[in-house]
Amino acid sequence: MPQDPMHLPLRAIAVFHAAARAGSVSRAAQDLGVTPSAVSQQIAALEVHLGTSLMVKTGRRAALTEAGERYFEMIAEHIDRVSEATQNVRGYLSSKSLVVRATPSLSTKWLLPRLGRFLDANPDLDVRVDATNEPTDFSREGVDVDIRHGEGNWPGLFVESIAEERFFPACAPALCAPATLEPSDLPSHRLIHSVKSQMQWGRWFSAAGVTAVPAWRRVLFDRSHMAVDAAVNGIGIALESDLMMWRELRSGVLVCPVRHPPPASRVTQWLVCPHDRLRRRQVRAFLDWVRAERDSWLAERDGQIEWRFR
Q1: Which residues form the HTH lysR-type domain (predicted)?
Q2: Is the pTM here over 0.70, yes or no?
Q3: Whole-angstrom distance, CA of residue 264 vs CA of residue 291
Protein backbone atom coordinates (compact mmCIF):
# COMPACT_ATOMS: atom_id res chain seq x y z
CA MET A 1 0.00 0.00 0.00
CA PRO A 2 1.26 3.52 -0.72
CA GLN A 3 2.49 5.48 2.30
CA ASP A 4 1.09 8.75 3.63
CA PRO A 5 1.24 11.15 0.62
CA MET A 6 1.90 14.11 2.93
CA HIS A 7 5.25 12.62 3.97
CA LEU A 8 7.94 13.18 1.35
CA PRO A 9 10.91 10.80 1.60
CA LEU A 10 13.34 13.46 0.39
CA ARG A 11 16.44 11.38 1.03
CA ALA A 12 15.05 8.47 -0.99
CA ILE A 13 14.02 10.82 -3.82
CA ALA A 14 17.54 12.29 -3.98
CA VAL A 15 19.11 8.81 -4.01
CA PHE A 16 16.78 7.64 -6.79
CA HIS A 17 17.62 10.77 -8.80
CA ALA A 18 21.34 10.04 -8.43
CA ALA A 19 20.93 6.39 -9.45
CA ALA A 20 18.69 7.20 -12.40
CA ARG A 21 21.11 9.84 -13.66
CA ALA A 22 24.14 7.55 -13.21
CA GLY A 23 22.36 4.51 -14.64
CA SER A 24 24.05 2.41 -11.97
CA VAL A 25 23.45 1.72 -8.30
CA SER A 26 27.16 1.23 -7.61
CA ARG A 27 28.13 4.46 -9.41
CA ALA A 28 25.45 6.39 -7.53
CA ALA A 29 26.78 4.90 -4.29
CA GLN A 30 30.26 6.18 -5.14
CA ASP A 31 28.90 9.64 -5.96
CA LEU A 32 26.94 9.77 -2.71
CA GLY A 33 29.65 8.23 -0.54
CA VAL A 34 27.47 5.34 0.64
CA THR A 35 27.25 1.61 -0.01
CA PRO A 36 25.31 0.13 -2.95
CA SER A 37 23.12 -1.62 -0.39
CA ALA A 38 22.16 1.73 1.13
CA VAL A 39 21.20 3.05 -2.33
CA SER A 40 19.08 -0.01 -3.04
CA GLN A 41 17.32 0.31 0.33
CA GLN A 42 16.42 3.95 -0.31
CA ILE A 43 15.08 3.17 -3.79
CA ALA A 44 13.06 0.29 -2.36
CA ALA A 45 11.61 2.58 0.31
CA LEU A 46 10.61 5.10 -2.37
CA GLU A 47 8.96 2.36 -4.44
CA VAL A 48 6.92 1.36 -1.37
CA HIS A 49 5.96 5.00 -0.84
CA LEU A 50 4.85 5.39 -4.47
CA GLY A 51 3.34 1.94 -4.78
CA THR A 52 5.15 1.13 -8.02
CA SER A 53 8.47 -0.23 -9.25
CA LEU A 54 10.97 2.39 -10.43
CA MET A 55 14.13 0.42 -11.29
CA VAL A 56 15.09 -3.11 -12.26
CA LYS A 57 18.56 -4.59 -12.38
CA THR A 58 19.96 -5.68 -15.74
CA GLY A 59 23.38 -7.12 -15.06
CA ARG A 60 25.52 -4.47 -13.40
CA ARG A 61 23.29 -1.64 -14.51
CA ALA A 62 19.97 -0.40 -13.22
CA ALA A 63 17.28 0.22 -15.81
CA LEU A 64 14.31 2.47 -15.23
CA THR A 65 10.83 1.08 -15.55
CA GLU A 66 8.27 3.05 -17.53
CA ALA A 67 7.02 4.56 -14.26
CA GLY A 68 10.61 5.26 -13.23
CA GLU A 69 11.31 7.12 -16.47
CA ARG A 70 8.20 9.28 -16.04
CA TYR A 71 9.03 10.01 -12.42
CA PHE A 72 12.67 10.90 -13.22
CA GLU A 73 11.57 13.28 -16.00
CA MET A 74 9.20 15.04 -13.61
CA ILE A 75 11.67 15.52 -10.75
CA ALA A 76 15.03 15.97 -12.53
CA GLU A 77 14.73 19.70 -13.26
CA HIS A 78 13.51 20.46 -9.74
CA ILE A 79 16.28 18.44 -8.09
CA ASP A 80 18.85 20.27 -10.21
CA ARG A 81 17.40 23.63 -9.18
CA VAL A 82 17.47 22.65 -5.51
CA SER A 83 21.09 21.53 -5.91
CA GLU A 84 22.07 24.81 -7.58
CA ALA A 85 20.29 26.87 -4.94
CA THR A 86 22.01 24.88 -2.20
CA GLN A 87 25.43 25.47 -3.73
CA ASN A 88 24.70 29.19 -4.08
CA VAL A 89 23.66 29.50 -0.46
CA ARG A 90 26.68 27.49 0.69
CA GLY A 91 28.89 29.84 -1.30
CA TYR A 92 27.17 32.86 0.17
CA LEU A 93 27.52 31.60 3.72
CA SER A 94 31.15 30.63 3.27
CA SER A 95 33.52 33.03 4.98
CA LYS A 96 36.09 32.28 2.28
CA SER A 97 34.00 33.10 -0.78
CA LEU A 98 33.41 36.34 -2.65
CA VAL A 99 31.12 36.51 -5.67
CA VAL A 100 31.39 39.69 -7.75
CA ARG A 101 29.14 40.47 -10.70
CA ALA A 102 30.36 43.08 -13.19
CA THR A 103 29.68 44.08 -16.76
CA PRO A 104 31.80 42.26 -19.37
CA SER A 105 33.50 45.50 -20.42
CA LEU A 106 34.44 46.63 -16.93
CA SER A 107 35.55 43.09 -16.07
CA THR A 108 37.78 42.90 -19.14
CA LYS A 109 39.19 46.42 -19.24
CA TRP A 110 39.41 47.52 -15.61
CA LEU A 111 38.78 44.78 -13.06
CA LEU A 112 40.78 41.81 -14.35
CA PRO A 113 44.02 43.72 -15.03
CA ARG A 114 44.02 44.75 -11.34
CA LEU A 115 42.44 41.72 -9.68
CA GLY A 116 45.74 39.97 -9.01
CA ARG A 117 46.58 42.57 -6.38
CA PHE A 118 43.36 41.83 -4.51
CA LEU A 119 43.99 38.08 -4.68
CA ASP A 120 47.55 38.52 -3.42
CA ALA A 121 46.33 40.64 -0.51
CA ASN A 122 43.54 38.14 0.33
CA PRO A 123 44.99 34.67 -0.34
CA ASP A 124 42.35 32.97 1.84
CA LEU A 125 39.44 34.05 -0.38
CA ASP A 126 37.84 32.10 -3.21
CA VAL A 127 36.83 34.78 -5.70
CA ARG A 128 34.33 34.30 -8.50
CA VAL A 129 33.72 36.99 -11.13
CA ASP A 130 30.40 36.73 -12.94
CA ALA A 131 30.59 38.92 -16.07
CA THR A 132 27.12 39.92 -17.24
CA ASN A 133 25.07 43.03 -17.92
CA GLU A 134 22.08 41.64 -16.03
CA PRO A 135 21.56 43.38 -12.66
CA THR A 136 21.64 41.07 -9.67
CA ASP A 137 18.47 40.03 -7.86
CA PHE A 138 20.13 39.84 -4.45
CA SER A 139 17.07 38.13 -2.94
CA ARG A 140 17.53 35.12 -5.21
CA GLU A 141 21.17 35.05 -6.35
CA GLY A 142 24.32 34.28 -4.40
CA VAL A 143 26.15 37.45 -5.42
CA ASP A 144 27.95 39.59 -2.85
CA VAL A 145 28.75 42.76 -4.84
CA ASP A 146 27.47 44.06 -8.16
CA ILE A 147 29.56 46.53 -10.18
CA ARG A 148 26.64 47.89 -12.14
CA HIS A 149 26.40 50.07 -15.23
CA GLY A 150 23.67 52.68 -15.12
CA GLU A 151 22.43 55.87 -13.52
CA GLY A 152 22.90 54.83 -9.89
CA ASN A 153 19.20 54.82 -8.99
CA TRP A 154 18.60 51.57 -7.08
CA PRO A 155 16.55 52.31 -3.94
CA GLY A 156 17.06 50.11 -0.92
CA LEU A 157 20.61 49.12 -1.84
CA PHE A 158 24.04 50.40 -0.91
CA VAL A 159 25.22 52.38 -3.97
CA GLU A 160 28.60 54.07 -4.43
CA SER A 161 30.07 55.51 -7.60
CA ILE A 162 33.45 54.29 -8.81
CA ALA A 163 34.67 57.38 -10.67
CA GLU A 164 33.68 60.14 -13.04
CA GLU A 165 34.78 58.99 -16.49
CA ARG A 166 35.92 61.30 -19.28
CA PHE A 167 34.65 60.47 -22.75
CA PHE A 168 36.49 61.44 -25.93
CA PRO A 169 37.34 60.04 -29.38
CA ALA A 170 40.21 57.55 -29.65
CA CYS A 171 41.80 55.59 -32.47
CA ALA A 172 44.97 53.77 -33.45
CA PRO A 173 47.82 56.24 -34.15
CA ALA A 174 48.30 54.66 -37.59
CA LEU A 175 44.76 55.75 -38.47
CA CYS A 176 45.08 59.34 -37.20
CA ALA A 177 47.94 60.99 -35.40
CA PRO A 178 47.26 62.65 -32.03
CA ALA A 179 45.67 66.10 -32.05
CA THR A 180 45.47 66.36 -35.85
CA LEU A 181 41.70 66.62 -36.31
CA GLU A 182 39.00 69.11 -35.48
CA PRO A 183 35.68 67.79 -34.14
CA SER A 184 34.09 68.77 -37.48
CA ASP A 185 36.44 66.35 -39.28
CA LEU A 186 35.13 63.28 -37.52
CA PRO A 187 31.92 62.67 -39.53
CA SER A 188 34.08 61.94 -42.58
CA HIS A 189 35.71 59.01 -40.75
CA ARG A 190 34.27 55.63 -39.85
CA LEU A 191 32.91 55.98 -36.32
CA ILE A 192 32.67 53.13 -33.84
CA HIS A 193 29.47 53.10 -31.81
CA SER A 194 29.13 51.42 -28.43
CA VAL A 195 25.36 51.07 -28.44
CA LYS A 196 24.90 50.66 -24.66
CA SER A 197 27.17 53.53 -23.71
CA GLN A 198 25.69 56.50 -21.86
CA MET A 199 27.74 58.82 -24.08
CA GLN A 200 26.73 58.60 -27.74
CA TRP A 201 28.22 60.34 -30.77
CA GLY A 202 25.18 62.58 -31.25
CA ARG A 203 25.51 64.02 -27.77
CA TRP A 204 29.28 64.48 -28.15
CA PHE A 205 28.87 66.28 -31.48
CA SER A 206 26.32 68.60 -29.88
CA ALA A 207 28.81 69.42 -27.12
CA ALA A 208 31.45 70.08 -29.79
CA GLY A 209 29.11 72.35 -31.76
CA VAL A 210 29.14 70.03 -34.77
CA THR A 211 26.11 69.19 -36.87
CA ALA A 212 26.44 65.52 -37.72
CA VAL A 213 25.88 64.50 -41.31
CA PRO A 214 22.60 62.66 -42.03
CA ALA A 215 24.44 59.48 -43.06
CA TRP A 216 27.83 58.50 -41.73
CA ARG A 217 30.07 55.50 -41.93
CA ARG A 218 29.77 53.54 -38.75
CA VAL A 219 30.13 50.15 -37.09
CA LEU A 220 28.19 49.24 -33.95
CA PHE A 221 29.10 47.01 -31.01
CA ASP A 222 26.99 46.10 -27.98
CA ARG A 223 29.99 45.94 -25.63
CA SER A 224 32.41 48.76 -24.84
CA HIS A 225 35.38 46.41 -24.69
CA MET A 226 34.65 45.36 -28.28
CA ALA A 227 34.50 49.00 -29.37
CA VAL A 228 37.85 49.68 -27.69
CA ASP A 229 39.47 46.64 -29.32
CA ALA A 230 38.01 47.60 -32.69
CA ALA A 231 39.64 51.03 -32.38
CA VAL A 232 42.97 49.43 -31.47
CA ASN A 233 42.70 47.31 -34.61
CA GLY A 234 42.28 50.41 -36.79
CA ILE A 235 38.64 49.86 -37.71
CA GLY A 236 37.65 53.43 -36.92
CA ILE A 237 37.38 56.10 -34.23
CA ALA A 238 35.63 55.13 -31.01
CA LEU A 239 33.95 57.34 -28.43
CA GLU A 240 34.77 55.75 -25.10
CA SER A 241 35.73 56.58 -21.53
CA ASP A 242 39.22 56.81 -20.13
CA LEU A 243 38.21 54.21 -17.52
CA MET A 244 37.70 51.62 -20.25
CA MET A 245 40.62 52.72 -22.44
CA TRP A 246 43.24 53.44 -19.81
CA ARG A 247 45.67 50.61 -20.60
CA GLU A 248 45.45 51.30 -24.33
CA LEU A 249 45.94 55.05 -23.87
CA ARG A 250 48.85 54.60 -21.50
CA SER A 251 50.61 52.14 -23.82
CA GLY A 252 50.01 54.37 -26.86
CA VAL A 253 47.99 51.88 -28.93
CA LEU A 254 45.14 54.39 -28.72
CA VAL A 255 45.40 58.18 -29.01
CA CYS A 256 42.97 61.07 -29.09
CA PRO A 257 43.02 62.41 -32.67
CA VAL A 258 41.10 65.61 -31.79
CA ARG A 259 42.95 68.80 -30.88
CA HIS A 260 40.52 70.21 -28.37
CA PRO A 261 37.80 67.68 -27.51
CA PRO A 262 34.92 69.23 -25.56
CA PRO A 263 34.67 68.18 -21.91
CA ALA A 264 32.30 65.23 -21.59
CA SER A 265 32.13 63.22 -18.39
CA ARG A 266 29.71 60.93 -16.59
CA VAL A 267 29.60 58.42 -13.76
CA THR A 268 28.49 55.14 -15.30
CA GLN A 269 29.86 52.40 -12.98
CA TRP A 270 28.59 51.78 -9.45
CA LEU A 271 29.33 49.48 -6.52
CA VAL A 272 25.99 47.97 -5.48
CA CYS A 273 24.99 45.49 -2.76
CA PRO A 274 22.42 45.04 0.02
CA HIS A 275 23.33 46.90 3.20
CA ASP A 276 23.60 43.67 5.18
CA ARG A 277 26.40 42.45 2.85
CA LEU A 278 28.56 45.25 4.25
CA ARG A 279 28.91 43.22 7.44
CA ARG A 280 30.89 40.55 5.60
CA ARG A 281 34.63 40.87 5.96
CA GLN A 282 35.37 39.94 2.35
CA VAL A 283 32.85 42.46 1.02
CA ARG A 284 34.39 45.27 3.05
CA ALA A 285 37.85 44.19 1.90
CA PHE A 286 36.76 44.22 -1.75
CA LEU A 287 35.11 47.64 -1.52
CA ASP A 288 38.17 49.11 0.19
CA TRP A 289 40.39 47.61 -2.51
CA VAL A 290 38.26 49.04 -5.34
CA ARG A 291 38.39 52.47 -3.70
CA ALA A 292 42.16 52.29 -3.37
CA GLU A 293 42.55 51.17 -7.00
CA ARG A 294 40.21 53.95 -8.09
CA ASP A 295 42.14 56.59 -6.18
CA SER A 296 45.45 55.34 -7.60
CA TRP A 297 44.05 55.40 -11.12
CA LEU A 298 42.63 58.92 -10.72
CA ALA A 299 45.96 60.20 -9.39
CA GLU A 300 47.77 58.68 -12.37
CA ARG A 301 45.22 60.00 -14.84
CA ASP A 302 45.12 63.52 -13.45
CA GLY A 303 48.88 63.68 -13.17
CA GLN A 304 49.51 62.74 -16.80
CA ILE A 305 47.59 65.16 -18.97
CA GLU A 306 49.79 64.54 -21.99
CA TRP A 307 48.60 60.93 -22.50
CA ARG A 308 45.45 62.20 -24.19
CA PHE A 309 47.43 63.56 -27.13
CA ARG A 310 50.43 61.25 -27.45
Answers
A1: 8-65
A2: no
A3: 23
